[in-house]
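Incident log, support desk, overnight shift.

02:14 A customer reports that sequence design results differ from what the structure should imply. Their input is reproduced verbatim below. On-call engineer (initials T.W.) acknowledged and began investigating.
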C-alpha cells in the first residue's frame, strides 16, 4: 500500500510503501478507545495555556517556556527554601492555622511590590 504525505522538514510531497498490516498498525495508534480523551488539549497542557503551564513549571521549580523576546526580562523567583529576607523565625505556636484543614501553615516565601513575577508579562 502506498501512502502519500508531505515531508515536515522540506515541505515537499513524498510517498511511503507499507504492508497493509503495518499501515493499519500505524493508523490505529492515533485512535483512542471509547471514553478516552486527548489530554494534551485540556487544562494547562492546551497550546493556548502557556501562562498556566509556566505556573505549573514554576511550582515544580523548572525553567518556564519563554520566547526569545521574553528570555532577557525574566528573573527567576527566590528559592522558597531559603530563610526569610528579614531573618525572623516563625515559632510553631504563633504560626497561623489553615482556615480549611486547621493544620499549621508553613512559610514558603513572600511577594513584595515590584518583585519579578514567576512568568513575565507578554509584550503587546
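02:41 Re-run completed on a clean worker. Output:
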Amino acid at each position: 500500500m502506498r501512502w502519500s504525505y508531505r515531508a515536515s522538514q522540506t515541505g515537499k510531497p513524498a510517498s511511503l510503501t507499507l504492508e497493509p498490516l503495518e499501515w493499519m498498525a500505524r493508523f490505529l495508534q492515533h485512535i483512542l478507545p471509547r471514553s478516552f480523551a486527548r489530554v494534551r488539549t485540556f487544562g494547562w497542557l492546551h497550546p493556548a495555556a502557556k501562562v498556566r503551564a509556566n505556573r505549573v513549571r514554576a511550582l515544580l521549580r523548572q525553567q518556564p517556556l519563554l520566547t526569545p523576546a521574553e528570555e532577557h526580562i525574566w528573573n527567576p523567583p527566590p528559592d522558597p527554601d531559603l530563610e526569610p529576607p528579614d531573618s525572623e523565625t516563625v515559632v510553631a505556636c504563633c504560626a497561623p492555622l489553615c482556615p480549611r484543614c486547621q493544620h499549621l501553615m508553613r512559610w514558603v516565601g513572600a511577594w513584595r511590590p515590584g518583585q519579578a513575577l514567576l512568568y513575565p508579562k507578554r509584550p503587546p
